[in-house]
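Lecture 7 notes: from sequence to structure.

We start with a single chain of 242 residues. Read the sequence below before looking at the structure.
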Amino acid sequence: MNLQTDNHQVSPQIYARIGGLLYLLIIAFGIFYQMMVRDSIIVAGDSMTTMANLKENEFFWRLGIVAEFLSAIVGFGLVLVMYQLTKPVNKDLAMLAAFFNLAATTIQTVFVIQLVEALFPIGTSSYLQAFTTEQLAAMISLSMKSHVFGFGIALLMFGPYFLIAGYLIFQSNYLPKFIGVLYAISGMGYLVNSFMLILAPQLSGIVFMIIVLPVLVGEVSLALRLLVKGVNEPEWRKYATN
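Now the structure, written as C-alpha cells:
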C-alpha cells in the first residue's frame, strides 16, 4: 500500500486504517468510563453512597476523566479522517457533517469539567468545612448529573453528523451501503436518547437500553470495516476525480 497517490495526497486506505483505529479507541474509552468507572461509583438516588465510592476510588475516577479527554482528542482526529473519506461524494455535506462533529466533540470536552468538579467536595480545603456532609454529597451528585446532560447535548450534535455521514456512506460505492444505513440508525438513536433526556428524563434510562445496541452496532461496523478492509480505492478515486 502506497502512502501517497500520484498527486502526492495521502492514500484513502491510510485514512481508512487510521480512522478505524481511532474509532475503536473512542469506543474503548467510552466503554471504560461508562461501564467500568461510572457504573462502579455512581449509585442512582443515593448521593451519600456515591460520595463514599468516589472517596474510595478517587484515582479510578481520575482515570475515567483522562479517558474522556483522550476520547475527545482522538475524536478531533477522526473528524478529519471522516471528512477526507466522504468528501468525494459531496464536499459540502461532508463539511457540514464535520462541523456537527466538531461542535459535538467540543461540547463533550467542555462538559468533562463537570467530572473534575465532582472531586472538589471530597478535597481537604478549609472552606469545605462550611458545608455539611449531605451538602457536599449533593454537590457531587449535581456535578455528575450536569455531565450527563452535557453529554446528552453533545449527542444532539452528533446525531445530525451520523445522519449526514450515513447518507454519504450509503451514496458512495466504496463503502458498503448497509453500513451507511446502520450509521444513520445510530444517529437517530442518539437524537431520540438526547431529546428524551431533556423532555422526559424519567424515561431516558429505558430509552437508552433500547437504543444502545443498534448505536453500538452501527459504530463498530464502520470502525471494523475501515480498519480491516478500508475503502474500495478504485471507486473512491472515481468519485475523487469527478
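The chain is about 80% helix and 0% strand. Keep this in mind for problem set 3.
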